[in-house]
């Protein structure tokens, strides 16, 4: 079989062996590359999910900070209104 392949390619048995070795190397290389790509894709997906979790946590913190700031603003407005009322000013927030 190796000799026939070599003759088909215009050479001898050695040419056939080289052709089979190159074909096997390409096949094995493609399988290794496929496994590498799957591993790389899984790692990319894991990092993406981790980034989303961190972003969600930051958004949650920002919403809490905004709610706290809003509550403080309302409190300060109430204090200012009470102070203004005690002085007889007509302050309206």
From TrEMBL:
UniProt superkingdom: Bacteria
Q: What is this protein called?
A: Uncharacterized protein
**What is the organism field in this record?**
Ligilactobacillus agilis
